[in-house]
Structures are given as structure tokens and as C-alpha cells.
Amino acid sequence: MDVTPLVSKGRQLIESYGDGAFKISGVVYNAPVIVFPESCFSPDYFEADESNFRLLREVFQTSYSPSVLLFGTGKNTSLIPEIEKEFVRQQNCVLDIMNTGAACRTFNVLCAEDRRVAAVLFPVD
């Protein structure tokens, strides 16, 4: 039985994750990604030890304004500083922090429901 969510044409679908990579709508990314319903990109400037704040700001510098932002922290859920959470709240957006697997699955479901969702995802080895 196929349980792949029905996603409208032109919408991003996270097909797989693991081994340090993502496959999103047929394209493989080997770094953190920012996923919107109609686009996806991997910031080329990201350093593993830098703040998540730069990635969070990147989401809101586009013309797309999500109402839900999923933050996939890798294999395990980890916390982010309160100042970063407050920044997202000031954008009238709900921040949901979870492990990357849960964030991928949740993104696909919310995208299939045509919700205004975006995701910042860190790879899982």
C-alpha cells in the first residue's frame, strides 16, 4: 500500500533523508536545507558551528511567509536559544523543533494539506 501523501503539482516532497543527505522532489542535497512548498535550497554559507539564527533569518527574507516553521535538528531533538524562538514569533510564525525525521514527515503532511509551512532541516548521518 502506497502511503505517500498526495502533494499538488509543483510542491516539494521530501522523499528520503539519511546518510548525510536529503532527496527532495528528485534532487539530492548533501547539506542543511531550507524547504518551502514550492522551492528548496541549501545555503552555501553554512558552517556547522555557527548559530541557527542565520538560517532562521533566511526563511523570512523570502517573499514566502510561513505560519509554521519546522526545525529539524538532526538525529536528536536539541534546543535553540530563546532569542531565536522570539525572532520567529515576531514573524507571526509558530516554531516547532523536532528531530529531522519527524520534521520531514510533518512537512510532507502539512504541505499536502496546503498549509503555509517551511522547514529548516539538518542532515542525519
**Order of strands in the sheet with most strands:** 5-4-8-6-7
> With helices defined by DSSP (H or I, 4 residues minimum), what is the helix count?
3
The Rg value, from CA coordinates, equals: 13 Å
How is the quaternary structure best described?
A: single chain
> How many beta-strand segments?
8
State the share of residues found in helices, binned by percent. 10-25%
Overall geometric form: globular
Low-confidence stretches: none
Kindly, what is the distance between the CA atoms of the first and last residues, rounded to a whole number of angstroms? 28 Å
Task: Give the SSE order as H and E letters.
Answer: EEEEEHEHEHE
Broad structural category: alpha/beta
